[in-house]
Amino acid sequence: xxxxxxxxxxxxxxxxxxxxxxxxxxxxxxxxxxxxxxxxxxxxxxxxxxxxxxxxxxxxxxxxxxxxxxxxxxxxxxxxxxxxxxxxxxxxxxxxxxxxxxxxxxxxxxxxxxxxxxxxxxxxxxxxxxxxxxxxxxxxxxxxxxxxxxxxxxxxxxxxxxxxxxxxxxxxxxxxxxxxxxxxxxxxxxxxxxxxxxxxxxxxxxxxxxxxxxxxxxxxxxxxxxxxxxxxxxxxxxxxxxxxxxxxxxxxxxxxxxxxxxxxxxxxxxxxxxxxxxxxxxxxxxxxxxxxxxxxxxxxxxxxxxxxxxxxxxxxxxxxxxxxxxxxxxxxxxxxxxxxxxxxx
Length: 345
Known about the structure:
Blueprint: H1 2-19, H2 38-46, E1 77-80, E2 86-88, H3 92-101, E3 106-114, H4 121-129, H5 136-159, H6 162-185, E4 199-206, E5 210-217, H7 218-225, H8 235-254, H9 260-283, E6 286-289, E7 292-296, E8 301-302, H10 306-317, H11 321-326
Parallel strand pairs: 3-5
Antiparallel strand pairs: 1-2, 1-4, 3-7, 3-8, 4-5, 6-7
Helix pairs in contact: 2-9, 5-9, 6-8, 6-9
């Protein structure tokens, strides 16, 4: 029985090798070094990284710690419509999601709320392993990426290509190093003074004339808008991240050793995973972070000019100081109000 299994594996391997004779894939490992932002974007849109991400292998996986720069250095101005305070969105992950949600010349309404769930050891274990998303398509695409890696591992074991298996394992090790660092960095930190039970209505002015109206409890708003999303890395974390990056480059050098079919499996895995995860990111319709969720509600409203938006909100709120401080209207065009800029943290 054992000899029959061995002969079957040899036959499969010889057939696969013959079918791709003459094809050179020695540089297939370089695919992993492509500076794609797919994994960085996933990290920002989910607010963290889970241990199941170890099976999500895409080009650019060594750049996960750069997720804090995806907002393009934009920290948009925000006005509290109920109080007139003006401040900025300090969370780059939230800015990225708002940029994704926004539409030029349109006001998009959104709400922030607490993520429902039972607080228990089992719930914490689940959140460490998997970040569910309200979008079924996004979750399905993500799980397909995980399944693809598992199938690739089993196939490499089946054909006995241990070099390819080693290359894949090194990528997973580098991925795990970055996951642990991201989870350590994305712990809840300073979020300002608590204001339980207080609700707020915010207007956010993004670049390219994209406008977001965000409502919710003040404490929930502070959790996703203020303070740090991911703190700066410590020396130990920078060292581990650098080692993980070196592993990916070493892995690219070792990728010339697997059998031709093993190289094809690795390249196809990276390319398909990139496509699936990119599609999953595109279908995410809610940002989840620190136990809160931001989601668009209703339909976007188009305006011919920004002044029309300002006038409508001034009539609705009964105050215009926030519009003056945001520079949406001139002080002379309205009633006399305090023109000093106030900052709420």
